Amino acid sequence: MRRIIAVLLENEAGALSRVVGLFAQRNYNIETLTVAPTEDETLSRLTVTTTGDASKIEQITKQLNKLIEVVKVMDLTDGDHVERELMLVKLRAEGDKRDELKRTTDIFRGQIIDVTDATYTVQLTGPSGKLDAFIRAIGKTAVLEVVRSGVSGIGRGEKILSL
Amino acid sequence: MTEHLSGGDMLIRALQDEGVDYIFGYPGGAALHIYDAIFRQQRVEHILVRHEQAATHMADGYARATGKPGVVLVTSGPGATNAITGIATAYMDSIPMIVISGQVATDLIGTDAFQETDMVGVSRPVVKHSFMVKSAAEIPMIVKKAFYIATSGRPGPVVIDVPKDTTDPAVTAAYKYPKSVSLRSYNPATKGHTGQIRRAVEALARARRPVIYAGGGVVQGNSAELLVRIARRLNFPVTTTLMGLGAYPSTDRQCLGMLGMHGTFEANNAMHASDLIFAIGARFDDRVTNNPKKFCPQATIIHVDIDPASIGKIIAVDIPIVGPARAVLEEMEPMLEQELTKHALPDAAALQDWWKQIDGWRAQHGLNHEMLAGAKAGDPVLPQQAVQALLEVTRSEAYVTSDVGQHQMFAAQYYKFDAPRRWINSGGLGTMGFGLPAAMGVQFAFPNATVACVTGEGSFMMNMQELSTCLQYGLPIKIVNLNNAALGMVKQWQDMQYGGRHSQSTYRDALPDFVKLVESFGHVGMLVERVGDLMPAMTEAFSEKNRKRLVFLDVHVDPEEHVYPMAIKGGSMRDMFLSRSETN
C-alpha cells in the first residue's frame, strides 16, 4: 500500500537526518522525500511517500511522532488529498521526432522549457502516475535525463496540517 | 545581578542547578575547559573511571537505583565512541541519562581533526534526543531541555555535544538557569484516556482467567505500590518481565515470577491459557512473546504504556491506554473499587479455579528454590545454588546487578526481589560488561547499601579495569562470579541447536587466577569450588569484617548446567524445554 505522509518539523540543523535515519534504522522504505521551509520559517514541511501494510504505516507515524523535533504528522492518504510532483525531462529530439514529442508534451499539459537542435527539455507536473505515463508514452530511447522532485501533498478542503 | 560565566562554568553550574551529585567521566583534550570548571567547584563530584563505557553503565546503574538521571562526561572522538554501548544500553531500557561529550572546536568540525567524531550522528539511533552547542549562551537552556527530555515521557539518554570553543574560559555570557521549559513539538502523555481506563476496568472485573503482566515501566514509573494494591484487591496473578522484577514482591503468593524465554512454567502457562492480559509498562518483547502468531490465543489484551509506538507494535491490543503507569493506575483504582461493589465481581469461583490450575503448574514444574538443602559438601556448585546462597545471606535486601548470559537468568529466576529498583540488568540490549560498573553506580548512590554483582567470567572480563576505580573510591561491592570457564549461554545454544559444537565459546586454559587478579587491585578474593564452601564464603563476603571491602567470590560452577525453562523457538508461550530431556 502506497502512503503519503506529511510531517511538520522544527527547521533546525540535524532534524532532517533524524527523520531519514529513522526510516533506515527501522527498515522502512522511502520512495520519495521532499522538504522545504514553510511560510513560518521555524518550520519545515516534509512529504514522504512510503509503502507498507496498515500496521507498518501506523508504526511509521508513531515513530515519527516520537522524534523530538517532529511537530505534527499526518497520513494524507487517510483522506482526500492532492499530490503533485514536478519532473524535468531531457529528450532526444531530432528530425521528424520533434513534432511528435511536442504533441505528446501538449497532451500531457507539459511545457518545453529548453530547446536545442537535438534536444527538448520538458517540464511536467502532476500526480506521480501521470509522470510515469509520460515517460512510457515517449519511450525510453528518447529519454536522456530525468529529474523528479518527489511528491508534495496537501489535504483537500478544511483538512489542514499546521501548528 | 546577572552572573557572567564561561561555557565550561555554565555547564557545571547548570548541572548543580539540576541537583546532580555525580558525574561519571574521563577527561581528554576537547573536554579540558569543562574539566577545569569541575576542578574549581565542590558541589558536583566527578568520578574518574577507567573506560568511558563503564562511565555510562555507572550513570545507568545510578539512574536505575535512584530514578534520577545519571550524568556522563567524555571527551571527543574515542571518548565519545566508547560511550556508545552504554548509551545504547540505556536507550533500550528507557533509562534517563545525560551524556556530555567534548567536541573539537567549531571551526575544526568536518576537517577530520584530531579526535573528531560526529557524535550527534554516531549516537543518533540510540538516543532519545541530542544537542550540539553552538554558543556558550545556549548552554543553560540546552541543559534544561536535555534533563526534561531525558526524564519525562518514556525516559532515555540525551547527548549534549560541546565544541571546545563554546567552553572557552575567555568567552563569557550571562548565566540564568531556566525555571521551566516547554517544547511545542514534545508533549508526552501525563494521564491516560478516561474512557479507555473505564473499558479496562470493566474487562478486569469480568475476567475469569486473568494475568497481570508488569514490565520495567512499572518500576521506572514508580507505580509498584499501586500495582500491588490493585493486584491484591483483585486477587489476580502477576508475572513480571526481566525488567519488571521487583515491581511485585517475588515472595508473594500471587507472584508467578518472570515470564518469557526463561520464564517460569506457571507464568508462561498462565499467559497462554489466560482470557485477559493486563499488560502495564511492558512492551511484548520477542523474548517474552515467542511466536507472536501463537501468542495467548484466548486473551483480551489491555496494554498501558507511556509510548504509543509500543502499543500494537508486536501484538494487536484490544484496549490500548497511552499514559504513565502511575497516573493510569491512580485513575483506575477508584473506578475499579466502584465496579467491584456494583456487580460483586470478579467472579470468585472462576478465580478460585484459575488459582487451582496455576498452583498445579507451580507444583508440577515450578523452580526449585531449595537446591542447597540436599546438596553434599563435596558436590560441584550449581549456579542456581550460588544465587540461592546470595539470597539467603542478603535476605532479598541487596541491590543485585548482573551482566548478560546464563548467570543473568539464574539471578533473575532465583534471587527473590521484593522491592522495585533492586534488580539492575541490561535487559533490552543485553550488554556484557554492564554488571560491575552498574553496581558501582548503585553504590555511589547508596554508600551504605548492600550491592552485589552476579556475573560470569566472560562478562566480568569486559569491564574488569573498573576494579581500579573501586579501589580509588572505596566501593565495597560484592562480586559473585559464576565461573563456568565458558560463554555459558552461547554454549547452551550450541548444545541445543548446533549439535554440541562449541564454536569459540570456551577458553578454559586461558583464564586468569581471579583471586590473585582482584588481590592485585587491592581487593579481597575468594575461591569456591565445592558446595560445602559456598555458604561459609558467602557469609564471610558479606560479614562485618568485609563491610568496607570489595570482595570477589570466584565460584567455580558446574559448566554443564543449562538455564531452564527455555522457550521452544517458533512456538507459543507454553512451549518450553523444561530440562535436557523434557518439553512441555
Write a structural description.
The complex is a heterodimer of chains A (163) and B (584). By secondary structure, chain A is an alpha+beta fold. Helix content of chain A is 28%, strand content 40%. In chain A, a hairpin with a 3-residue loop joins β6 (111-115) and β7 (119-126). The model of chain A has no long low-confidence stretch (mean pLDDT 96). By secondary structure, chain B is an alpha/beta fold. Chain B is 37% helix and 17% strand. In chain B, the strands form five sheets. Chain B has a six-stranded parallel sheet with strand order 3-2-4-5-7-6, with helices on both faces. In chain B, strands 11-10-9-12-13-14 form a six-stranded parallel sheet, sandwiched between helices. Chain B has a six-stranded parallel sheet with strand order 16-15-17-18-20-19, with helices on both faces. In chain B, β21 (566-567) and β22 form a beta hairpin. In chain B, α1 packs parallel to α7, α3 runs parallel beside α5 (84-92) and α8 packs across α13. Chain B is globular and about 75 Å long. Chains A and B meet through α1 and α2 of A and β6 of B.
Rg of chain B is 25 Å
Task: Please work out how many helical segments of chain B DSSP would assign.
Answer: 22
Cα end-to-end separation of chain B: 73 Å
Can you tell me the overall shape of chain B? globular
Which protein chains are joined by the largest interface, and how many residues does each one contribute?
Answer: A-B, 19 and 18 residues
> What share of residues of chain A is helical?
25-40%
What percentage of residues of chain B falls in helices of 4 or more residues? 25-40%
Structural class computed from helices and strand pairing of chain A: alpha+beta
User: Low-confidence stretches of chain B at least 5 residues in length (pLDDT < 50)?
Assistant: none
Counted by DSSP, the helix tally of chain A is 4
Write the H/E string of chain A, N to C.
EHEEHEEHEEHEE
